[in-house]
């Protein structure tokens, strides 16, 4: 009897740990566009709201869990419909490596689709959780993901669902918070096709309609180069200038603007799957860095 009672908690802990590890395998490639930057925005909201330290720590922890579920739903749905493509483009994903079965991923997706809005309701952001779920259904079940315009809208509107929830789970949305949300929404909507440059082979194999395949790789690169090249002006005018002429704001302005110019150069000069993957990772890190700066630009 003692053996059974001691084994049961150990088995439960082992199962919980396995599920945490497996969820990490599903989401790890997307952490720089979801969990990390959105949690930074939660922290910025806590700083803006002047929460006590213990309240801020709790808010950030709750927010991090919310965005873990946020991206877990996306990656489960995305990888379930893209197994064959992932065999070509992303062979490290769990459904390709065998770390998860198709049936297991479907069961987890069903569970997350219930848990995520319930948790969003507890945090007071149910409307944004439901918006994300509607977008996910449109993307993965109703064909948005197979067309370049739908893919870009999914990413852009997803920024609204992400950042509005991040701020509102702490305090009421302000005009300054909305300025950041709208600016990043427009940026992501127009420039997110940078992710499709690395996946041309797999996208062609599954007949997905992406910008490089519809408009041509060269034209797509020129368009993205132009978009990143105007980045410093947009960053200064919409994000940094309203925060005032402090040296730390100027330094952030220069850093983000410089990264944007680097991306403009990389997208046309450095080509091929490996270089395009590095370019996309730099875009993710730019996004995270921009949102980290809201800790002092939105005080």
UniProtKB/TrEMBL annotation:
Pfam families: UbiA
Keyword annotations: Membrane, Transmembrane, Transmembrane helix
Membrane association type: Multi-pass membrane protein
Compartments, record wording: Membrane
Primary residence: membrane
CDD domains the record matches: PT_UbiA_3
InterPro entries per the UniProt record, alphabetical: Prenyltransferase_related, UbiA_prenyltransferase
Residue ranges crossing the lipid bilayer per the database entry: 51-71, 110-132, 153-174, 180-201, 222-241, 247-269
Record's protein name: UbiA family prenyltransferase
